[in-house]
Amino acid sequence: MRNVLVVGSLALAAMVWSGVSAQQEMQARPGPGSGVTRVSGSVDIEAMPDVNAKQRGEWRVAITDLPAVRVAGLAFVRAGGRYEVTWGGGEKEAVRVSEIGADGWVRVEHQRSRWVNLGHARSVEAGN
């Protein structure tokens, strides 16, 4: 009987102690708290191992999920002609071609003289 009384008292004391210590971390009523939480512990960065990674194989870097858009057959483009060019982002520009280069490159006059590659345009339309 005496052992039961001692064990019961110790169990009751442990429950009371855990309840009281848990209330120190809680607020008296529900609602937003102070946002401050007590954290204890340590982190030893020097004990972390060094990372020694080596590259395996060939590096392949690419942009994916882009539609392949090419203007084919720019034979109709002539020096002195006016054209409306729609670029890849949807921007439209009216230009006058002053010189024809190779591989789709043309010198245009609009707000300033510059070389552009019509092969990278979404569309090229002959103007008046």
Keyword list:
128 residues, alpha+beta
| Overall 3D shape | elongated
Q: What percent of residues are in strands?
A: 15-25%
Strand order of the largest sheet: 4-3-2-1-5
> What percent of residues adopt helix (DSSP H or I)?
10-25%
Give the number of DSSP strands.
5
| Uncertain ranges | none
* Rounded Rg: 38 Å
Give the SSE order as H and E letters.
HEEEEE
How many helices? Answer: 1
Q: Could you report the average pLDDT, rounded to the nearest whole number?
A: 79
Largest sheet: 5 strands, antiparallel
N-to-C terminal Cα separation, in Å? 112 Å
Class by alpha and beta content? alpha+beta
Explain the layout of strands and helices.
Blueprint: H1 2-23, E1 82-86, E2 92-100, E3 105-109, E4 113-117, E5 123-126
Antiparallel strand pairs: 1-2, 1-5, 2-3, 3-4
Describe what this molecule looks like in 3D.
The structure is a single chain. The chain is α+β, with helices and mostly antiparallel strands and 128 residues long. The protein has a domain of 45 residues. The chain has 1 helix and 5 strands; from the N terminus they run H-E-E-E-E-E. A 5-stranded antiparallel β-sheet has the order 4-3-2-1-5, with no helix packed on it. A hairpin with a 4-residue loop joins strand 2 and strand 3. The longest helix has 22 residues. The N and C termini lie far apart (112 Å). The mean pLDDT is 79.
